Known about the structure:
Number of helices: 7
Shape: globular
Radius of gyration: 19 Å
Number of strands: 6
Largest sheet: 6 strands, parallel
Order of helices and strands: EHEHHEHEHEEHH
Amino acid sequence: MKTTKTTQATKTLIVHAHPEPKSLNSSLKDLAVSTLEAAGHEVRVSDLYAMNWKAAVDPTDYGPAASSPLRIAADSGRAFEAGTLTPDVLAEQEKLLWADTIIFQFPLWWYSMPAILKGWVDRVFTYRFAYGVGEHSDTKYGERFGEGTLAGRKALLSVTVGGPESHYSARGINGPIDDLLFPIHHGILYYPGIEVLPPFVLYGTDRMTDEDFADVSKAWEQRLLTLESTDPIPFRRQNFGDYEIPSLHLKDGLEPTGRTGFGLHVRG
């Protein structure tokens, strides 16, 4: 992983999901803001708990575009195109379009993101904005997985994990951390075109001391200052020859020897 320090000013959106302002996650969010701003970057923060973010999708999200019965994809797409999405959703979509880089700061709860953050994705990543875009034909299956509305942006997951790193290794009882994060990395972020950077994961955070945090801070600052020069995870692009269309099966012979599962969709 290439980590040359960056000097070019960028625009970063931090989406933060932890209810306690004095938590480790909140401290990492605050450190990200101060570090990036001190380096000359612009930063915006969506602190979902502080915003009292509404997590559940319902007909009020789509205004007059809502149908009965509710059809989430079609209704959200009509509302997006008509400009009738609720102001909170429109504001988050504008932030995503503004940003060069998006940092997601959250604890790993029950092998995934907190519900409030998943609700942010459910409501903000609407049809015709984050999916359902581009040409659908015999040779192209929409603009997604490497293409799409959010192409040209990078994202980083900054995740805190209560258990030790050995529990999240290849033979660990919880499974490899890369597999646990694959649905977010590949299915949420790469799907609308965002390039995904290797995650910043802290293990054993339930037992972290103030002395430990000093070392963590240095490591986090280093990652933040090298975001623009860090190589993304090399996920395969959907429409560039690796997959059969319309089956979207990886073509025979492209997988490295012995590789299976999620790893099939990573080049190299």
